[in-house]
Automatic annotation (TrEMBL):
CDD domains: DSP. Residues 316-334 have a biased composition (Acidic residues). GO terms for cellular component: cytoplasm; nucleoplasm. It comes from Venturia nashicola. The lineage of its organism: Eukaryota, Fungi, Dikarya, Ascomycota, Pezizomycotina. Residues 311-348 are annotated as: Disordered. One of its GO terms (molecular function) is F-box domain binding. This is Uncharacterized protein. Gene3D superfamilies: Protein tyrosine phosphatase superfamily.
Length: 348
């Protein structure tokens, strides 16, 4: 006797006709990626009236890096001045450096080894963002030699890849501000000594990627009203060829959130904000020092944030225990609250 075969109803996983919900969008077959970070373009990046004021300078209790003396100067005057005279941006402009603020310049390595340009602009320090390869050190050798010949300060940080920059941002900010502060102190003690105001040129091979990220992070670190969007817009306004790809924008967004959290925690604890990069000594004349900082170790600059993260881990463990004890209804309600107010939900 032959038994009838059981009838099998095959149903695709994407078929939700018999379920109580429907998907909001089609399935895609690609590697999961974070949402794209969109930075709106400026309507007129090269106009005479810029509304992109970075805000006030944040006071740092460390006198070696506190630059609030710049508050009395026109440090944002460059933002109201057109980058190029006459016509718009040309391809040749990318080979030159541009002033982002009155004391902060951004450009390629070609500009960093141009003696005439450095002397004409009054640059007192060059900061190289060097790719950590044998060829990277060869590319920065020329600008470092020029700095020695001109008797100006020089510094460099070595970066293996862009993701490593986030641990070096506090250090690069400290390098810049310590140089500005030391020159200001020397000028205050000897007003007739002919000591110039500090001006720093930050550069990498192209002046469009790593060095642009360092300058954007500096703006977030130093000014009250500058987030990652405004920082990138200011850099693009002054140097139109800056290239912030998705990974760099995500990196700046994450760093901006960390900086904001650090400030909020300091306010709650009534503690001053310290920008704890590595100590930097930057002589100005004679034999400037070469700085090659190392990435910060976890638990230094963002120690309170990391401690709060461990506290949150303990809270999650306690929630798991409560769910096992029968308190899962309240936990489930809390879980549903996480999705309230979101613009997109996967299923309806």
């Amino acid at each position: 006797m032959t038994l009838p075969l059981p009838q099998i109803n095959e149903q695709a996983m994407s078929d939700n006709s018999r379920l109580g919900h429907a998907r909001s969008a089609d399935y895609v077959f690609r590697i999961p990626t974070p949402p794209r970070v969109v930075i709106p373009a400026l309507n007129a990046w090269n106009n005479h009236k810029s509304s992109w004021h970075p805000g006030n300078i944040i006071h740092d209790p460390d006198p070696a890096v506190n630059v609030d003396f710049l508050q009395e100067t026109d440090y944002v005057g460059e933002l109201a001045r057109p980058v190029v005279s006459g016509g718009g941006w040309t391809y040749a402009n990318r080979r030159q450096a541009q002033s982002v603020l009155s004391y902060l310049y951004l450009g390629p390595q070609n500009a960093a080894r141009d003696k005439d340009y450095l002397q004409r602009e009054g640059i007192t320090m060059i900061l190289a963002i060097e790719h950590k390869t044998p060829s990277g050190s060869m590319l920065t050798k020329g600008p470092m030699k020029v700095a020695d010949e001109l008797g100006i300060a020089k510094a460099k940080v070595e970066v293996a890849h862009n993701q490593e920059l986030i641990s070096l941002f506090p250090t690069t900010t400290r390098i810049i501000n310590s140089h500005l502060r030391e020159l200001h102190n020397r000028k205050t003690l000897n007003p007739q000594g002919g000591i110039p105001d500090g001006k720093v040129l930050v550069f990498c091979e192209s002046g469009n990627e790593k060095s642009a990220g360092v300058v954007a992070a500096y703006l977030m670190d130093t000014y009250t009203d500058t987030d990652y969007v405004k920082a990138a817009q200011i850099c693009n306004q002054r140097r139109f060829c800056c290239s912030f790809d998705d990974s760099m924008k995500q990196l700046l967004k994450t760093y901006g959130e960390l900086v904001t959290a650090k400030r909020d925690i300091s306010k709650l604890n009534n503690q001053p904000i310290h920008n704890q990069g590595h100590p930097v000594t930057s002589p100005f004349f004679g034999s400037p020092g070469l700085v090659s900082p190392q990435p910060l170790q976890p638990g230094s600059y963002f120690a309170p944030i990391l401690n709060n993260g461990r506290k949150r881990e303990r809270e999650i463990e306690q929630e798991d225990v409560d769910m096992d004890d029968g308190d899962g209804d309240e936990t489930m309600a809390d879980d549903q609250d996480r999705f309230s107010g979101r613009g997109f939900v996967p299923f309806r």
